[in-house]
Specification:
- This protein has helices at 12-23, 35-49, 57-60, 73-83, 115-123, 138-141, 158-167, 184-200, and strands at 3-7, 27-32, 53-56, 66-69, 91-94, 128-131, 150-154, 174-179.
- The chain is an alpha/beta fold and 220 residues long.
- It has one domain: 3-Layer(aba) Sandwich (Rossmann fold), CATH 3.40.50.
- It has a 6-stranded parallel β-sheet with strand order 3-2-1-4-5-6, sandwiched between helices. The chain has a two-stranded parallel ribbon with strand order 7-8.
- Helix 1 packs across helix 2 and helix 4 runs parallel beside helix 5.
- The longest helix is centred in the C-terminal third of the chain and has 17 residues, at 184-200.
- The chain starts with a strand and ends in a 20-residue tail after the last helix.
- The mean pLDDT is 96.
């Protein structure tokens, strides 16, 4: 089992990921801008998940196998700058989608092409970097509900990508390789479309599912 920090773990998506990982048996630490807020969230969730670590984001990111960043796009750059010198050899997983209120149902990819490439520029080449969990409903993750959608995982580091894919079954999810980091743009754009679909069709956490796949990828 892995030692995992969830940075921004007091937000909706962060809580859902914390819950699923902890119930799968991983050693999970909730990170927040406020250590007090992280502790309050850990105490609140402990009855369901068991004991959780808690700390301010900068401290939470240290000494972990995996660091998962679950913050809004507006906070992405500042958060990554804060933790980049703390993560060491950890795999950093960014869930950020470039939603720009109030037009969150409209695809608005940044000038760099996607939030993933912006994040990679901030973190630099020395950090193992993956993106994932863009299109999964936060409130479904933070429940015992079956999550009937796929998690696309992107990275130029094939082994790091596989590590994150392998986390998914224990969380009740199916992780799929989406290929290189550049391809993260597709999943980021889909988030705005899913928000639109949820509103238009009154769906409760619409997701995406790939059909007619083989047991495993033919190529990395």
């Amino acid at each position: 089992m892995a030692s995992i920090a969830v940075i921004g773990g007091t937000g909706d998506l962060g809580r859902g990921i914390v819950r699923r990982l902890a119930k799968a048996g991983h050693d999970v630490t909730i990170g927040s801008r406020s250590a007090e807020k992280a502790k309050a969230a850990a105490d609140d969730m402990a009855g369901d998940t068991g004991p959780l670590g808690h700390a301010a984001n900068e401290e939470a990111a240290q000494g972990k196998d995996i660091v998962i960043v679950t913050v809004p796009y507006a906070s992405q750059a500042g958060t990554l700058e804060l933790i980049r010198d703390k993560v060491g050899d950890a795999i950093v997983v960014d869930t950020t989608v470039p939603l720009v209120p109030p037009k969150v149902m409209r695809v608005q990819l940044p000038q760099a092409g996607c939030a993933a490439l912006e994040a990679k520029e901030i973190l630099g080449d020395g950090i193992r970097f993956v993106t994932a969990f863009h299109n999964v409903s936060a409130h479904l993750l933070d429940s015992d509900a079956k999550v009937d959608c796929d998690v696309l995982v992107f990275s130029d580091d094939v082994e790091a990508r596989k590590t994150v894919i392998d986390l998914c079954p224990g969380m009740g999810l199916r992780g799929l390789s989406g290929g290189s980091l550049n391809n993260s743009a597709a999943a980021e754009a889909l988030t705005s479309i899913l928000i639109y679909m949820n509103k238009t069709y009154k769906a409760d956490g619409a997701g995406i599912r790939f059909t007619r796949l083989t047991e495993g990828p033919a190529i990395p």
